[in-house]
Amino acid sequence: MTTxxxxxxxxxxxxxxxxxxxxxxxxxxxxxxxxRVDGNDDLTDIDLWLYERPTGxxxxxxxxxxxxxxxxxxxxxxxxxxxxxxxxxxxxxxxxTTDTRPIIRKIAKKLGMLIFDGKDLQxxxxxxxxxxxxxxxxxxxxxxxxxxxxxxxxxxxxxxLSDVKSSVIDNFGPSTVVRSLDAVAYxxxxxxSAYPNSPTAKLAGRLTYFSGxxxxxxxxxxxxxxxFRPLEDRRAIxxxxxxxxxxxxxxxxxELHLALGLVRQYADNGxxxxxxxxxxxxxxxxxxxxxxxxxxxxxxRTNETLxxxxxxxxxxxxxxxxxNYDQLDTLVKSFLGALLDFSGIDRKIxxxxxxRESMKNPELSSVDAxxxxxxS
Length: 376
What we know:
The chain has helices at 9-24, 74-88, 102-110, 118-126, 138-152, 156-166, 174-193, 199-225, 231-244, 249-252, 254-266, 270-286, 290-298, 305-318, 330-342, 347-351; strands at residues 28-35, 44-55, 58-67, 92-97, 114-116. The chain is α/β, with parallel strands linked by helices. The protein folds into 2 domains: 9-126, Trna Endonuclease, Chain: A, domain 1; 138-244 and 290-351, no CATH class. The protein starts with 8 loop residues before the first helix and ends in a 25-residue tail after the last helix.
């Protein structure tokens, strides 16, 4: 996380190395997550946000602060990151530092945190099994986004991507699902309206995949809470999450109810106006076709599938040769197809937006690469 200037090329490179490291370890990883409070401008950013599936009925969210300075203020970073982890209500935090003093690990343990010290980082960097050479870096992807926005004289691609990333730490869960579904609809519409095989079409496709990955992670988190409920209850919870941004419909409508109360109290013919708004809003929510997505989830074989789909969509979004829709794995294609149907996007037009190219299909398998694993 940063509060001022970035650490420069070394810091960016180290973030990428650790991003690949955690992907290899089986995590879902988002780099450069903006932290906002009450809609304010970005207060800081989380270098790496991690989502882990340690067991079938458990999930864990963690953050990583990365510092590659020659004179890191490691104790300050540990305290800062500890406070931020508590503010974000995540399950754990790492600090990656070039510092090699033994005292640093002791302080981290006392704070209940994990540390990558200089020796750990050297070991990870030296491994030839960590990096994904076929992946774009996050910096390369963001540069592509800026270039397309500049050509269109807008910042829409950047703003939507920033909001999708921010959604994983701002009311994570149902709210994440709603915000990332909006991004899927936006980017997919840009795919189908752009000139075929154009940079805009391909980039919008990448960002559709990435936004779809965040949808899958959000729904995975929601499904864990409903894992031991009867099937109809699980369906209702998932539908509510998509429609109302809350697993409970009434709780999701709380702000609307407060607004209607003000209308009743202060508007002319307030009771009549409030009733009309309530009826129209209820109809609007009821018409959100959440069942399209939920029925696809219910057809999946195991609870692990959403997590796996999220990792595959995230991987596809960063591959240097971006696969088109027809090149995706069958389950991934089915899930993304449900998101496209939900958004009113024609699957066939989306699939024809850019040409199929031959590509490698690397596995996201774990490797021995550092302190989380035995070093070879």
